[in-house]
Specification:
homodimer; Rna Polymerase Sigma Factor, Chain: A; Rossmann fold; alpha/beta
């Protein structure tokens, strides 16, 4: 079975955040690696994650629980860990080991909460460099960035133009659009409106779970596609009994599905981390400074670029990927784009491994 | 100026609701008329409303405040009240005069709340018949039903096949789809989760306003279109100052817009009425009883049918209208369908009078 290890790097202070905050505490960045780095150190693939996942991308002999991309990464899988050395980093600001609002202040039992500096995509990308350095890797074989991770990947290459040979961008954008800003703003409002949130100073035993559930409910609607639900649920009736005066009793299977997924939701995701990372997606703009995408991509010392997406993605509509594709093309980069026939909306890359896997594999082996 | 009057009919008990509840209290149905019914009584147009509007469809010399379709209905407007006698009925279950959960129980100061029977689209349609009878109208010239009102219009003709000569259906469906059921279910959850809702027994001075605002926030996102917002807001920055640790401070104009529209929202719409009507949209299915749409439409004694809709309608996607169109066509009805180039999503018929008005006018004058 695939050999893996979970490690961390400590970034010595001060770390200067993009917004100018100089952070005088040490930062921790947690990562997992799977497979073996070869002698030439040219078989490393870095996967930058979406908002929610940890660094645990796939199971291993050391940690047998399935990873968030279990069907894609592993021995003899689409990203073959017998051949590649796969690195997955938990984003700065997240809560799965890397520093963020859920971390404890040094030598205290007090969490940073909202006193943690604002985290941007640029900060997340910058904080990944020490991991790559620690592993002694000069140039990654490929960086793969899905969703928020695609923004991180682009920012990483913008900051370190020679850091990778190849780049795969999945269901992402160089900057997001007002519709998705509105959706995320509402999700954040639902969390901060929960009286248990108490301005980010909630107690572990009293989390703003209702707000988190409502935000997740909205996420479940907007991360998938109407077409999928038409086929899967249509107007199928719930087999539960319902009472007219009970507005929480369901009439339809789609309601049962959403209720089950949200009721059962006892997230280990920290609410403040969610707020931080959600906002970082809103504010990211690769073109900041009024450069065009072309001008930015011209500096990218990448070989090949693959762009994958799907129809009916409310978070990053396919047109966002087409913009990125056009700009790469105009800089004469070896770039290709593919709209996959997945019905699972923005979440497709997480669930539709049969469409995403072969395309990633083919690109890696080209 | 257009002459109008606001009246009501009292429906004597018992009224048997679709779910079997026999209601032993009298029901009130409020309506407004504009223009003058001619001697032949063949110039009446009934407009059935969406979820939120009252019967006040346009201003008049008696009531000068603008109506909800002010740009469409009035003297010399697209629906010309010098020529037509326009009737608009406040739906059963609503809170603008017609009976519903916000009404007082007879001879008490106690509201029905959730003890009011479940209201279905069929009940709303059935309760409109006494208004038409009261006015002495045998056959309406045209019934115009936008959004939920389109469902009401179809149900009305299903129950009274000769009630109208012509039919205009706008941004509606013969039954809704799981994606919109999910959105409405979340809106209802946001209202019922507000601690001021207290199982529908809220006090007037302590309404579940936060929940209503959150539901409206979601509505504002899903009733419009991403394309409109791309053009209107893009990534324009808010000119308000923001603080990193304040998650309610805005970075973008789209957020200012949504905040302004929801903060300023002190609705006179009753939360329970909202819940009732919202659910009635979910549960409505014209094909109930396993008849096909064709079989149902075959019984409709209507002359001409016009179907109008737009792209990017998340509530009633244009395919819903195409289904209705195809079924009418298969019954050899004189039916036409038009996808208008509006960018305002589901709300287009409320705001884009320049696209909707001429098409309605042309149909009426044909």
């Amino acid at each position: 079975m695939n050999h893996a290890s979970k490690k961390y790097v400590a970034i010595e202070p001060p770390f200067t955040f993009k917004n100018g905050d100089k952070f005088d505490d040490p930062l921790t960045i947690v990562y997992e690696t799977s497979g073996t780095l070869n002698d030439k150190k040219d078989n490393a693939i870095l996967v930058t994650t979406g908002l929610s996942p940890s660094a645990h991308i796939c199971s291993s002999s050391e940690e047998t629980s399935p990873g968030w991309w279990e069907k894609i990464v592993g021995d003899d899988k689409y990203i073959d860990t017998r051949k590649y050395f796969v690195i997955c980093i938990n984003s700065l600001g997240s809560c799965y080991g890397s520093s963020g609002p859920a971390s404890f202040k040094p030598d205290t039992e007090e969490k940073y909460g909202l006193s943690f500096p604002e985290v941007t995509i640029e900060d997340i990308a910058l904080s990944m460099k020490p991991v790559i350095d620690e592993l002694g890797i000069e140039t990654l074989n490929t960086v793969i960035g899905p969703s928020m991770g695609g923004m991180t990947a682009m920012s990483l290459v913008k900051q370190f133009p020679s850091i990778t040979k190849n780049l795969i961008l999945i269901s992402t954008a160089a900057s997001c659009r007002p519709f998705s800003i509105a959706l995320r703003s509402l999700q954040r409002l639902l969390i901060t409106s929960d009286q248990n949130w108490v301005e980010g100073k909630y107690q572990d035993k009293n989390l703003p779970l209702d707000g988190m559930k409502q935000a997740r409910y909205l996420g479940m609607i907007t991360y998938r596609s109407p077409t999928e639900w038409n086929q899967r649920f249509g107007r199928k009736r719930s087999d539960k009994t319902h009472r007219a005066e009970d507005f929480s009793s369901n009439r339809f299977e789609i309601q049962d599905y959403l209720k089950k997924k949200t009721d059962g939701f006892v997230s280990d995701f920290d609410p403040n981390s969610y707020l931080y990372l959600s906002r970082s997606i809103d504010t990211f703009d690769l073109m900041e400074g009024n450069e065009s995408l072309e001008e930015i991509f011209k500096r990218f010392k990448v070989g090949r670029v693959l762009i994958l997406g799907v129809d009916e993605d409310y978070i990053f509509p396919f047109e966002c990927l087409e913009e990125v594709f056009d700009a790469f093309k105009n800089t004469a980069k070896d770039v290709s784009i593919k709209k996959l026939p997945s019905l699972n909306g923005h979440d497709s890359f997480l669930v539709d491994h049969e469409n995403f896997g072969p395309n990633i594999k083919k690109f890696l082996e080209a």
